[in-house]
């Protein structure tokens, strides 16, 4: 896997990143650090990538388990160390998984497998951060209340 990050120049602290798969992403710093707040911070991108990695796993595991998954959102809330290096110290993942007749145990198993076995980003971040997670299931197969 290859990526390239290039500084946009001396007028601030913004960077452009190109992935090996040909996608472009912008990053910027906070105004107090010389940035202009025009794009996500690099550490926000790390957190975004972790959310994407684990959501991908959860959906794939549920689909392989023949669960009728229709949606998966994950919100991450992180705390960082106060001194450099300001690594993540705590991360809470909250999943909202939508589908028909999803089993509580299947969703919980998918989340645990992602965090413990499959999501490379989560496994790396777990070296410095304590993880917690919660989830809600939205059942689209239940009859509407009258």
Describe what you observe in this structure.
This protein is of the alpha+beta class and 146 residues long. It folds into two domains: 3-33, no CATH class; 42-139, GMP Synthetase, Chain A, domain 3. Helices cover 30% and strands 34% of the residues. It has three helices and six strands, in the order βββαββααβ. The chain has helices at 42-64, 104-118, 120-125, and strands spanning 3-7, 15-19, 24-27, 68-80, 88-100, 130-139. The protein has a three-stranded antiparallel sheet, with no helix packed on it. Strands 4-5-6 form a three-stranded mixed sheet, covered by helices on one side. A hairpin with a 7-residue loop joins β4 (68-80) and β5. α1 (42-64) crosses α2 (104-118). The radius of gyration is 18 Å and the shape is elongated. The relative contact order is 0.15.
The CATH topology assignment of the largest domain is GMP Synthetase, Chain A, domain 3
CATH superfamily of the largest domain: K homology (KH) domain
Radius of gyration: 18 Å
- Would you identify the CATH architecture of the largest domain? 2-Layer Sandwich
Q: Describe the global form.
A: elongated
Residue runs with pLDDT of under 50 for 5 or more positions: none
| Average pLDDT | 94
Strand segment count = 6
Order of helices and strands: EEEHEEHHE
The residue fraction in helices comes out at 25-40%
Report how far the terminal alpha carbons are from each other. Answer: 53 Å
Protein name: OsmC family protein
Pfam family, one: OsmC
